[in-house]
Amino acid sequence: MSASASIPQHIAIIPDGNRRWARENGLPVFEGHRRGVEIFEEIGDAAIKRGVKYMTFWGFSTENWQRSKREVAYLMKLFRWVFTNKLEDFHRKNIRVNVLGRAEQFSKDLQRMIKTAITKTQQNTRGVVNLALNYGGRAELMDMVKRALTMKLNPRSLTEEQLSRLLYAPDIPDPDLIIRTSGEQRLSGFLPWQGVYSELYFSKKYWPAFTPRDLDAAIEEYAARQRRFGA
Known about the structure:
The structure is a single chain. By secondary structure, this protein is an alpha/beta fold. The protein has helices spanning 18-24, 29-49, 69-85, 87-92, 108-121, 137-150, 160-164, 212-224, and strands spanning 10-14, 54-61, 95-100, 127-135, 177-180, 199-202. The protein has one domain (10-136, 175-223): Undecaprenyl pyrophosphate synthetase (3-Layer(aba) Sandwich), CATH 3.40.1180.10. The protein is globular, with a radius of gyration of 18 Å. It starts with 9 loop residues before the first strand and ends in a 7-residue tail after the last helix.
């Protein structure tokens, strides 16, 4: 296998364990989320430097609204901080920012920040960072079906390619590798359409403790596997 083939083109991450990391370190839960945002940038930079072209991070699920109002408000504050303070860094690094999910359910000001980030960086070419915000796999499939019905596509001639173009990010290739931190071994509805042939890697580390070395370990294991895609 060539060096380039051993590097996944697209890595998607479920960054789990922020709250447990905070509790085990005697810190407030919110500190776990804040630290998680720092790690997101560190791991994103490390992946791009290693030749990964696309990164997808699941930042907020459609189920996360069920958390306490105080925690949700803090997460929204963190998202605003990222789009306000990190957008220029993404742009300077020539990274395109994309958002997957039902962004229309966020506040108007956060929606504007998201739109600004997407528009400002849409011509950048070094890499793509997808932020899955208010994302759920079933929600994406439901939205895909609704679009298909609205477009009145002919079910007799409907193809997978047609449906794929109705996903939140139809121009992004399927993830080669999906990483979940914190020791949980499930996908929780993350990218159900796109991840059917993704290699899965489960790290026992909580997300705030995940390092570029841990990323390297995941990539090394990925490189050692044989992908057959059902053949």
